[in-house]
């Protein structure tokens, strides 16, 4: 077969896209997702509830914990089928920031990092906790606990200029009308510019990247039939429900 003349062997997959809306709910456009980076243990209270040490000061922070999810793990409509292979699906509510510009080569200065962010929102880092715990106990990677289908429901993004000062915003999650998680973004161990700086040491950050910034304490199990409502202050939300496992 002549490679130059040949077409694709399979249809190209659709690019996941998140809606971008203003504070009045008007659609401004869509955000095509390239990669999803996630930050682990970025709230001290959650680090402690997971059995990890929490830093007492900035000097003791060490380096952030990063992992990734596939871009097509995004769920836009909030409908999440209970995933296979687990009996312990957990919610983790998180600030999500969206990059609208490529980072220059090399380590991105902290002072310049915020300029990459074009929008923000709120989402859930869904976790197969039993698979993650089993892998951690054996010193193995825990991709199967984090990077599975429909593991990243995210609400509509809002332009970062409309969000105001992120550190002032509260972050919360209600499940079936009851509060499960609540904190404020000033409790992040590493803030957004610091995380982008650290990521840039390891990856080429590009427009289209999402960063899930970590979750506060209160992670717990979700069951089929549960309804969730995540909020980032009064500017963004993510609503949805857990459906029965696909047969």
- CATH class division: Alpha Beta
Number of strands: 17
Count of folded domains: 1
Shape: globular
- In N-to-C order, the SSE pattern is EEEHEEEEEHEEHHEEHEEHEEE
Unreliable residue runs: none
CATH topology: Fumarylacetoacetate hydrolase, domain 2
Helix tally? Answer: 6
**CA-atom Rg in angstroms:** 18 Å
The appropriate CATH architecture is: Alpha-Beta Complex
Amount of helix: 10-25%
Q: What about the largest sheet?
A: 6 strands, mixed
End-to-end Cα distance: 39 Å
Structural class by SSE content: alpha+beta
CATH superfamily: Fumarylacetoacetase-like, C-terminal domain
Strand content: 25-35%
Mean pLDDT: 94
Q: Strands across the major sheet, in which order?
A: 4-3-15-8-9-12
Oligomer: single chain
Give a description of the structure.
It contains 6 helices and 17 strands. With 247 residues, the protein is an alpha+beta fold. The protein has a single domain, classed as Fumarylacetoacetate hydrolase, domain 2 (Alpha-Beta Complex), CATH 3.90.850. The relative contact order is 0.25. The mean pLDDT is 94.
Furnish the topology, listing elements before pairings.
Layout: E1 17-21, E2 27-32, E3 35-40, H1 44-49, E4 65-69, E5 74-75, E6 79-81, E7 89-90, E8 93-99, H2 110-113, E9 117-124, E10 127-128, H3 129-137, H4 143-146, E11 152-153, E12 158-159, H5 160-163, E13 170-175, E14 178-184, H6 192-200, E15 209-212, E16 227-232, E17 236-243
Q: What is the structure about, briefly put?
A:
The chain is of the alpha+beta class and 247 residues long.
Describe the structure using short key phrases.
15% helix, Fumarylacetoacetate hydrolase, domain 2, alpha+beta, 6-stranded mixed β-sheet, 247 residues, 17 strands
